[in-house]
Write a structure and sequence with these properties.
The complex is a heterodimer of chains A (322) and B (244). Chain A is built from eight helices and 17 strands. Chain A is of the alpha/beta class and 322 residues long. In chain A, strand 2 (9-10) and strand 3 (13-14) form a beta hairpin. In chain A, helix 3 (73-87) packs across helix 4 (98-111) and helix 5 runs parallel beside helix 8 (305-321). Chain B has 244 residues and is α/β, with parallel strands linked by helices. Chain B has one domain (2-216): Rossmann fold. In chain B, 27% of the residues lie in helices and 32% in strands. Chain B has helices at residues 37-54, 69-78, 93-101, 124-132, 185-193, 230-240; strands spanning 2-6, 9-11, 19-20, 25-26, 33-35, 57-63, 82-87, 109-113, 136-146, 149-156, 159-166, 169-173, 196-200, 208-214, 223-224. In chain B, helix 2 packs across helix 5 (185-193) and helix 3 packs parallel to helix 4. The N and C termini of chain B lie far apart (53 Å). Classes of the chains: A alpha/beta (322), B alpha/beta (244). At the A-B interface, helix 3, helix 4, strand 7, strand 8 and strand 9 of A face helix 1, helix 3, helix 4, strand 9 and strand 10 of B. Bound molecules: flavin-adenine dinucleotide and adenosine monophosphate (AMP). Residues 6-8, 36, 38-39, 61-64, 90, 93, 96, 112-113, 115-116, 119, 121-124 of chain B line the site of adenosine monophosphate (AMP).
């Protein structure tokens, strides 16, 4: 019984979330003494697919026909389930990113499999597989046993650092019958070039109501630019239109898990913390020493953001030059 | 337009999370329960708006015990016309999806929230769509109807997509879809007499089971850095935390 990983392609390339999923699947396969097979859907160069071998895939099934040119949850889910049958897989791994959220439930139904979504740890157990995932919006963890003969796991982005080794995967053409598409795509917009989307960002600089108004976001953006970080904000900031909605992090916004989260002028309400408390390191800049966010922070600076942030930006630039 | 809205009951967002029975059960003592914000604020309100605009009917469905009726009544007060409660413990997403699928025929649209804020699954919509063999539009932030087709904006990795999809379909809703509504007195009065049908569960097995819970390790004390010493903060982030 092998492990099948859905290796998502974005404009023919594999992103970090894809490599994380492949690496995770390969680690599970290794623990179970079996192979990790990947399925890639959509157009891609053979070299990109062979490259998954470095992350542990022994083989890549590649569905590249006309019907697979564009993401469609029904079509892709059937192809993934068919690949699992072809590869004789009893475990299927996807990334718990936007497309994974559209696919995982469908794949589980197709395979009549148990499912744990948004997992963050290696599964334990042999037959009965148990895996950790954050619950209550990051306020706790659960050890979830996945039931059934077949199992689907979706991996939280940024939970595993994929490590490239040696090896190249064998690429095999895969032509399952295509299930009908869900919808007609009218338009597709991706964020401008080099900005890493929030759920995947390793570094995030976030601003709250303490910044007083949208005209003051320059200092946030300059710090983010110096670090190569993505910008985020608290909910009232997005609700009042100071910043776009997709930047809103927290319990009712995007949940993130960066290596570094810098919170500027954010009080640290429980609903805000719920979306950011999985961050590895938290820096809080707030002029109020009693702000609740300091209790959740690793490093704190009590001071006025309008003085502190530009100074921090300069310090970052100095460090980069040294 | 007949719209089915799936609503889950969750602990209020300010709840301090704790567990009992040797960390195998969520401690409900003193916990205030609410309708899952994504379900109420976005899926339900958008459904009610569409009904007001185009006519039709909005039905709310919940899989859960009788205690959930307080949350269901609130949805009726916001503007749903009727409700179904499937009388069962919602043991996991697979179980709940099968219960809802058994009640979901005859609707033009099935709306859900993007995820529940307690178990954060974000998978039920895909399960439901597959069980019913319908299109699924996940993470929708805008939904406009034009006859029998909908134009929906949704999140994709690193961007947005605008789709045209024909009814019937399943969509999960998030921020942007609608503005939360506070029920008014008239709505609350009317809600009392709106039909709430209780149906028995169909036979189904869960696909997962929580074995135990744990709270995250408490953070150590925050290290305070003098606002004049930003080079020191950068050094710590580089050498100690190793994040830049
Ligand atoms: C159901 C529900 C869901 C919610 N979901 C979310 C969510 O997902 N995400 C979210 O963020 N919120 C959410 N909230 C809102 C949350 O409760 C808080 O109201 C919100 O996070 C506060 O935003 P803030 O910290 O930017 O503003 P405030 O609470 O107003 O804090 C501003 C902070 O800035 C500091 N400050 C002021 N001036 C300066 C200065 N010059 N320099 C430095 N610091 C300064 C102040 O000391 C203060 O701590 C939710 C609320 C509810 C009820
Ligand atoms: N017990 C339930 N009854 C009705 N709807 C539910 C239930 N649980 C979840 N849902 C719906 O499914 C959505 C996604 O749930 P999940 O996939 O579990 O995160 C929620 O936002 C609700 O709209």
């Amino acid at each position: 019984m092998s492990v099948l990983v859905y290796a998502e392609l974005t404009e023919g390339q594999t992103k970090k979330s894809t490599l994380e999923a492949v690496y995770y699947g390969a680690q599970i396969a290794q623990k179970r003494g079996t192979d990790c097979v990947a399925v890639a859907i959509g157009p891609a160069d053979e070299g990109v697919l062979q490259g998954l071998g470095a992350y542990g895939a022994s083989k890549v099934l590649h569905a590249s026909g006309e019907a697979f040119a564009q993401f469609q949850s029904r079509t892709y889910a059937k192809a993934i389930a068919d690949a699992a049958s072809q590869a004789g897989a009893d475990i299927v791994v996807l990334s718990h990113n936007s497309s994974g959220k559209a696919l995982a439930g469908r794949v589980a139904i197709r395979l009549d499999a148990g499912l744990a979504s948004g997992v963050s740890g290696m599964p334990s157990g042999e037959g009965a597989l148990t895996v950790r995932k954050p619950v209550f919006s990051g306020k706790a963890f659960a050890e979830v046993e996945v039931l059934g003969d077949k199992k689907v796991l979706s991996l939280n982005p940024n939970s595993f650092q994929p490590q490239a080794g040696e090896g190249s995967a064998a690429v095999e053409a895969f032509n399952p019958d295509a299930a009908p598409a869900d919808a007609e795509v009218l338009k597709r917009e991706t964020l401008s070039g080099d900005v890493v989307p929030l759920p995947e960002a390793e570094l995030v600089v976030s601003g709250g109501r303490g910044l007083k108004g949208p005209e003051n976001w320059g200092i946030v953006e300059e710090l983010a630019q110096a670090l190569g970080a993505t910008t985020a904000c608290s909910r009232p900031v997005a609700d009042t239109g100071w910043r776009p909605h997709h930047e809103h992090v927290g319990q009712t916004g995007v949940a993130i898990k960066p290596n570094l989260y810098i919170a500027i002028g954010i009080s640290g309400a429980i609903q805000h913390l719920a979306g950011v408390n999985q961050s590895k390191t938290i820096v809080v800049i707030n002029k109020d020493p009693e702000a609740p966010f300091f209790k959740a922070a690793d490093y704190g600076v009590v001071g006025d953001a309008f003085d502190v942030v530009p100074r921090l930006t300069e310090a970052v630039k100095r460090q980069q030059q040294s | 337009m007949k719209i089915l809205v799936c609503v889950s009951k969750v602990p209020d967002t300010t709840t301090k999370i704790a567990f009992t029975d040797n960390n195998t059960k969520f401690n409900e003592a003193g916990v205030q329960f609410i309708a899952n914000p994504y379900d109420e604020w976005y899926a339900l309100v958008r459904a009610v708006e569409l009904k007001e605009q185009l006519g039709g009917e909005v039905c709310v469905i919940n899989v859960g015990p009788a205690a959930n009726e307080q949350v269901i009544r609130k949805c009726l007060a916001i503007g749903a016309d009727k409700a179904i409660r499937v009388d069962a413990e919602p043991s996991d997403a697979l179980f709940v999806a099968k219960q809802i699928a058994a009640q979901a025929s005859g609707y033009d649209m099935i709306l859900l929230g993007k995820e529940t804020i307690d178990y954060n699954g974000s998978v039920l919509g895909g399960m439901l769509a597959e069980l019913l063999d319908l299109p699924y539009v996940s993470l929708s932030s805008k939904l406009e109807m034009d006859g029998t087709s909908a134009t929906i904006t949704r999140d994709i990795e690193g961007g947005k997509e605008v789709l045209k999809v024909s009814t019937p379909f399943v969509a999960s809703a998030q921020k942007g879809m609608a503005e939360a509504r506070i029920p008014n007195m008239r709505g609350i009065m009317q809600a009392r007499s709106k039909p709430l049908e209780v149906v028995a569960a169909v036979d189904a097995q869960p696909g997962s089971k929580v074995q135990s819970y744990a709270l995250p390790e408490a953070k150590g004390d925050v290290k305070l850095i003098d606002p004049e010493q930003m080079d020191e903060l950068v050094r710590l982030l580089h050498e100690e935390a190793k994040v830049i």
